[in-house]
Design brief:
With 240 residues, this protein is an alpha+beta fold. It has one domain. It contains five helices and eight strands. Strands 1, 2, 3, 4, 5, 6, 7 and 8 form an eight-stranded mixed β-sheet that branches. The termini are far apart.
Length: 240
C-alpha cells in the first residue's frame, strides 16, 4: 500500500512538473518557431487557455536587418474563441479571433521600389507554408476576424521625410476566412497578416506596392499573393 502511495505521489508530481514546464516554455517554443520561419525576431509574452478560448498576450514581430522601424507588427492581445475539442478535428473552426491594440509598420526601400519589410517576412512564411502543406496538416476556418485599434506607420528608406503616421483604423472585421497547409499557428499568422495588409493597402491607396509584398515563391503561388491579387482591379499589375 505504501509503495502504491509512493508511486501515485511521484506520478502526480511528475505530471505537475511536465505541465508547469510546458506552460512556461510554450511562448518561447511558438516564438522561436515563428522566428525561424519568418526570418525575424518574434516574441510572445504569455498564453492563457480556457475550455472555450485561447488568449495570446504581447506578440511582437520584428523587422529584417537593415530596416529602420523597430517592429513590423505588435499585438497587445489576441483572443481565439473555440471549444478546445475542435483542435482534434481535420478542419479547425474558430468562431471568433479578435486582436486588440495593433501596430503595423510598413517600410519600403523607396517610393519606386516595392521591396520592403513585409515582402521579406511574408515570402519567408509563405515558403514555409508551401513546404509543409503536404505533411497532412489541418485546415483552418475563422468565422469572424476582428481587429481593433490599428495604428500604422509608413516609411520609405530613401525618403528624408521620415516616418509617416497614417490614419488609425478603429475597427476591421472579416468573415469566413480559411487557410490550409502548415501548422495551425503558421496558418493563423498568415491569415491575420494577410487580411490586415489587404485592408490597409486598400484604404491608403498603396496598390502599386503590392507587386513586391508577395511574389510567387520558387515552390508555388503563395496563398497571400492570390489573396492580395484578388482584392484589386485587373488594371493593377501582378507580374510573377
Amino acid at each position: 500500500m505504501k509503495r502504491f502511495a509512493y508511486f501515485f505521489v511521484a506520478a502526480i508530481f511528475t505530471l505537475f512538473c511536465l505541465v508547469f514546464f510546458t506552460w512556461n516554455y510554450l511562448p518561447y517554443w511558438v516564438s522561436n518557431s515563428l522566428s525561424n520561419k519568418m526570418g525575424v525576431p518574434v516574441s510572445i509574452a504569455h498564453f492563457n487557455f480556457t475550455p472555450r478560448a485561447i488568449d495570446v498576450y504581447k506578440t511582437t514581430i520584428g523587422n529584417p536587418k537593415g530596416y529602420v522601424l523597430s517592429n513590423a507588427l505588435t499585438v497587445d492581445s489576441l483572443e481565439a474563441k473555440t471549444p478546445l475539442s475542435r483542435f482534434f478535428k481535420d478542419t479547425i473552426v474558430l468562431d471568433e479571433v479578435k486582436l486588440s491594440d495593433v501596430y503595423l509598420g510598413l517600410e519600403f526601400d523607396s517610393m519606386l521600389n516595392s521591396r520592403g519589410n513585409w515582402s521579406v517576412i511574408m515570402n519567408n512564411l509563405s515558403a514555409s507554408l508551401n513546404s509543409e502543406s503536404s505533411k497532412g496538416s489541418k485546415n483552418l476556418l475563422i468565422k469572424s476576424l476582428i481587429i481593433k485599434n490599428l495604428q500604422i506607420d509608413l516609411i520609405f528608406k530613401n525618403d528624408n521625410k521620415g516616418i509617416r503616421h497614417l490614419k488609425p483604423i478603429p475597427l476591421m472585421a472579416f468573415n469566413n476566412i480559411s487557410g490550409e497547409g502548415g501548422p495551425l499557428i503558421d496558418q493563423l499568422t498568415n491569415i491575420v497578416i494577410s487580411e490586415i495588409l489587404k485592408e490597409v493597402f486598400s484604404i491608403n491607396n498603396l496598390k502599386n506596392m503590392l507587386n513586391g509584398i508577395l511574389r510567387p515563391s520558387s515552390q508555388g503561388i503563395s496563398p497571400l499573393y492570390n489573396s492580395l491579387k484578388s482584392l484589386f482591379s485587373q488594371e493593377t499589375e501582378f507580374n510573377p
